[in-house]
Amino acid sequence: MITALLIMLVVLGGSAGDVFITKGMKQLGEISTLHMGRLFGIAGRAITNRYFLIGVLFMAVSYFSFLGALRLADLSLVLPATSISFVITTIGARLFLKEKISPARLAGIVLVCVGVALISMPSQP
Amino acid sequence: MKTATVLIIAIVAQAAGDVFLTKGMKTLTSLETTGGGPSESLSQVLHLALQAMQNPMVWVGTLLLIVFFVLFSAALSWADLSFVLPATAFGYVLNVAAGYYFLNEAVSPRRWAGAVIITLGVLFVSRSGHRTIETPGDELLAARGVE
User: Is A30 helix (H, G, I), strand (E, B) or coil?
Assistant: First the structure.
């Protein structure tokens, strides 16, 4: 039960983190320079951007939940279970970032999710 | 083109970072514990952390993963999250291949199947275009005279 809750935190925290980081980076605007000084300036604005910081915080929640889940359950259960985050993040991107998910993109994401689950399952059942 | 370049470097950095981290962490020696009280496991964690911080492989691995995160975030400044995230999943395929070639890991048929399915998925996603929303500072907006 606690394991399921922690896995949910891993997935939701990771997805929320990605959505917030994207929101923050989109606020900074498209990076289209290779000038070192300017790149450092952009990095400075990124790590002081509110959305970006909230995103990093969610990532940390996800990471520590992952470590917690590993104390209670095997990696062979936790890792495949978290592959659903590809789908959850896509839902978040659609709802909160207004990205348009074409059928081709959705099909690709579902395939990636299935493939990641297969890869992260234990080799010897 | 820019998106492809940035993401390919990001994915390779991530896969290489994972290989270096694995190599480094595998050389660490854990303390033998007989009991398992909380203070003992804490001292074991500290012992491992100290060893890890002195290991050059762990440093290189961590640096490469930072490179990955910086490039991943940079790509998100112009490309869709629902494009960038599944695209970086190709890193799993590289990880399986790297584990097989550089770490001598046994790879089961199921994992190879997973790698093939991910590759197919990434091909689908990459055909869907990388941007469906406009960002500030965008040429599209500039062309329309929007500041």
Answer: coil
Tally the domains of chain A: 1
- Sequence-ordered list of residues with C-beta below 8 angstroms from that of A7, at least 6 positions apart, any chain: A65, A69, A78, A81, A82
- pLDDT tens, position by position, A29-57: 899 888 888 899 999 999 999 999 999 99
Q: What value of ipTM does the predicted structure carry?
A: 0.89
Digit-coded pLDDT (tens) for A91-109: 999 999 999 999 999 999 9
A100 and chain B in contact, CB less than 8 A: yes
Which stretch of DSSP H or E encloses residue B54?
none
Cβ–Cβ below 8 Å for B77 and A90:
no
Which single residue is written with the structure tokens 């940390």? A60
Domain assignment of residue A66, yes or no = yes
CA geometry: angle at A13 spanning A12 and A18, to 5°? 100
Domain-located, residue A96 = yes
Residues spanned by the domain of B33: 2-143
More confident residue, A33 or A87: A87
- Write down the pLDDT at residue B38: 58
Interchain proximity A108–B123, CB inside 8 Å = yes
Question: What is the b/e burial string over A68-84, where b = at least 16 CB atoms within 10 angstroms of the residue's CB?
Answer: bbbeebeeebbbbbbbb
Rounded mean pLDDT, B4-29: 90
The whole domain housing A14 covers 2-120
Q: Quote the number of domains for chain B.
A: 1
A109 and B138 within 8 Å at the Cβ level: the answer is no
Closest CA to B57 of B16, B91, B10, B97: B16
Phi first, then psi, for residue A46 (nearest 5°) are -65, -50
